What we know:
By secondary structure, this protein is an alpha+beta fold. It contains 7 helices and 8 strands; from the N terminus they run βαβαββαβαβαββαα.
Amino acid sequence: MLVDDMPIATFATIPSAEPAAYAAQHPPRPGLPDPEPGRPQVFNVRLASSAGRQDAAGVLVRRMYAWRGYALDPAARQDGARVTFYAETDGELVGTMSLALDLHGRLPADENFGDRLAPLRLAGRRLCEPSRLAIDKGMSKRVFAALIHISYLYAHRLRGFSDYIIEVNPRHVAFYQRMLGFAVFGGERDCSRVGAPAVLLRLPLDVMGERIRRWSGSFDAAGAERSFYPYFFPLREEAGISARLAALCQGEDRT
């Protein structure tokens, strides 16, 4: 049975104490009150187990994709099993991502890069595809990092998947390489789902795990690491997050 109202993880960020800097980083968002500078803003990450939450996540995805000029088809086929996580603050959904699981030899990326994924499957790799990632403008880096970290714990620790594969616009390749460590795995092709070109990227999850162990939770410390990994949850919190994930997903198809 899936429970919709128990947070998987909760964290707080402290907005800048400088009003001008805070205003520049946090533009007004309709329906969402802006916290005062210096006052903690609390975020919860949850599993979108109800149709209403999934619909709300879809609205944010379509809004952010449209803002970037992508023509996401809301009726596009969703291949394979899928789990969706979302982040909220003050009851307002501000970030979401979905994770497609390769349970039956089919992922959304197969539509454009099936020839690149087939050899991985033959080699025994278990693939999953983060998709429909959308973060509201002005949100802390920790919102993005929290969604990715939780998806890693779900996919690798709980389900035993071995690789992330993602399709990204060519303009965003350098970002995912620098900030998460993805590598190019398939050259530029047209992606019919969003009406834009796409490049296939791959990240083995054991490599992601190494980076998490090295850098997670270190965002307050001065250092040269400029990826998203310092904004991941501290290692001491992983066991509790994994336990809540397991409880929330109890009874899910484990095929």
